[in-house]
Specification:
It contains six helices and 16 strands. It has a single domain, classed as 4-Layer Sandwich (Purple Acid Phosphatase, chain A, domain 2), CATH 3.60.21.10. The relative contact order is 0.15. It is α/β, with parallel strands linked by helices and about 325 residues long.
Length: about 325
């Protein structure tokens, strides 16, 4: 058991299969966590709070630090470590107010958890709380975000959307994070990112990959309250319906979501993860995560989903919901 400034967790027990294991023969198991808010604000300076950050700091001081707890995150990681994973997805909000010091804390935590080969992440709105030089903030995690390779002319692709291939999986990461006015936590993709997403969806369809689109804000009409909504969710949904995907995952709401984006021809699962670190008596907002088993079958793809939730009295995680979907080939 490793003991450090982030609490206690079995760093030596997190199991990732080697990349060669994800060769498309047999199921690939991946996990999805979100909104761990794992950073500590006890050392923040008053100069750093002369902005919207003062509101986030007060929220942490009087509320969040009591309900978003590192010992709960550690319990989740210990439960997760019982699985041999092909990959781990983290859909943002690793910090509280996105300071450089917090992002350095997260970088250390990620290094303990696994390599960039095994973990893919995107930022959330808390990770880009105010207009900062991102190279000093969530840019410190760029190797866990960036696409696999550069183009043939040695031109580095834009940070978002990112594209990482892991065996039969295409992991497409989007950023909905942007600084907002006080009391708002909205997100936006922007026209350029949506256009680039469409190109990636076409490319990865031709490659015959299982396309996972990861974003922070929920994209459905029912996903978020007005002040926490994805501003261009309609444009995103239109792009997905036009070009297809096999799975959309997100966080932001701090509660589990099992839904579909549907059209006349498509029925795409949209699955949201609860916050990884919340201790709550509310059954809908308690710490949890999702496991996926993805396997190629003659008809297309088999997707098995298991959502796990913290049982407070037992101090362990149990199955909240599980189901299997057969998805047609693209």
């Amino acid at each position: 058991m490793a003991i450090g400034k982030f609490g206690r967790y079995d760093t030596g027990m997190m199991k990732f299969l080697p990349p060669s294991a994800n060769n498309g023969v047999g199921p690939v198991r991946i996990a999805h966590i979100s909104d761990p808010h794992l950073s500590d604000l006890s050392g923040v300076s008053w100069q750093q709070l002369l902005s919207k950050r003062i509101l986030g700091y007060l929220s942490w001081r009087f509320s969040r630090r009591h309900i978003q707890r590192l010992d709960i995150l550690d319990k989740l990681l210990n439960d997760l470590s019982s699985n041999e994973l092909g990959h781990l997805l983290i859909s943002g909000d690793l910090t509280h107010i996105g300071t450089a010091a917090e992002c350095r804390q997260v970088r250390s935590w990620l290094s303990d958890l696994g390599t960039a080969e095994n973990i893919s992440l995107i930022p959330g709105n808390h990770d880009y709380y105010t207009k900062d030089d991102i190279s000093r903030t969530f840019g410190l995690w760029s190797d866990y975000i960036a696409s696999d390779s550069v183009n043939s002319d040695n031109h580095k692709p834009p940070l978002f959307p990112s594209f990482r291939q892991r065996g039969p999986l295409a992991i497409i990461g989007l950023s909905t994070a942007l600084p907002t006015s006080p009391f708002f936590a909205t997100g936006e993709l922007g026209q350029k990112q949506i256009q680039d997403l469409e190109q990636l969806l076409v490319k990865t369809k031709k490659m015959g990959l299982f396309r996972i689109v990861m974003l922070h804000h929920g994209p459905l009409q029912t996903s978020n309250k007005f002040r926490k909504r994805l501003r261009d969710a309609h444009e995103f949904r239109q792009s997905i319906v036009s070009h297809g995907a096999e799975l959309i995952v997100h966080g932001h709401g701090h509660y589990p979501v099992w839904d579909f984006l549907q059209s006349d021809k498509l029925k795409i699962p949209v699955i949201g993860a609860a916050s990884a670190s919340v201790l709550s008596t509310s059954t809908s907002k308690r710490s949890g995560y999702n496991l996926y088993e993805i396997e190629r079958i003659p008809e297309g793809w088999s997707l098995r989903v298991q959502s796990r939730r913290l049982e407070i009295e037992a101090e362990s995680y149990s199955v909240l919901k599980e189901f299997e979907l057969n998805l047609p080939a693209a």
